[in-house]
Protein: Amino acid ABC transporter ATP-binding protein, PAAT family
Amino acid sequence: MTPLFSLDAVSVRFGRVPALSDCSLRICAGDRLALVGSNGSGKSTLLRTLHGLIAPAKGSFQMDARARQAMLFQRPYMLRASVLHNVALGLWLNSVPWTLAKAQALQALERVGLADLAGRNAKALSGGQQQRVALARAWALQPQVLLLDEPTSSLDPAAKREVERLMAEFADAGMTLIFSSHNLGQVKRLASRVVYLEQGRLVADLPTHAFFNGPLPVAAANFLKGELG
Ligand SMILES: Nc1ncnc2c1ncn2[C@@H]1O[C@H](COP(=O)(O)OP(=O)(O)OP(=O)(O)O)[C@@H](O)[C@H]1O
Structure:
């Protein structure tokens, strides 16, 4: 299968800080890939590189230009406008006429269970509701690839479960999921594959079952022991 993303010996630096070092990775359609690792290990940098927001300093990076992508951040950005307009604007920016954009936005809000709040000011919603608006905004664009940077880290357990449920449904509908998480339970529930990063290096890349049931490289095993212990 032709990969959606191919990284060969990719390095990214911020000034003198090496954020990614020599990373090689293939990501294929249908993968549910979790990025794990300590703070500062390079997860966000890898996601932003995959989304084309950062150009690698070294190495080769290729992505399937036909595969539409959407990215969600830890704290979604909401415009001071209605929920409906927050979703419709993303479509309009992708050349969908405004009337059609509003109709499709409403369908996307129905998809995430927020149609009732379409007229509310998006800035006034709770964190969990805002993340669901962000998921509706992504869903409306019908991306093949959804990148998520710690999408549930600031949410309470109920909101977390709801966002996880939607992520699983989107993956079941055929979307490729690539997400970073500090929540190993979530990684077990959602991922089919786990990439472990340490200080910008890709230390392990394994099916989820193999990652949690070892054997692992020492660094990854110590991380897991620390997180689970
Ligand atoms: N814009 C930036 N300018 C300078 N250094 C940066 C920038 N973004 C990231 N870094 C550095 O690059 C390294 C990797 O950071 P990154 O945010 O990718 O890690 P992370 O694994 O996502 O961390 P966290 O779990 O805390 O979100 C860190 O040393 C970080 O300080």
Notes: Residues 14, 17, 19, 37, 39-45 surround adenosine-5'-triphosphate (CB under 6 Å).
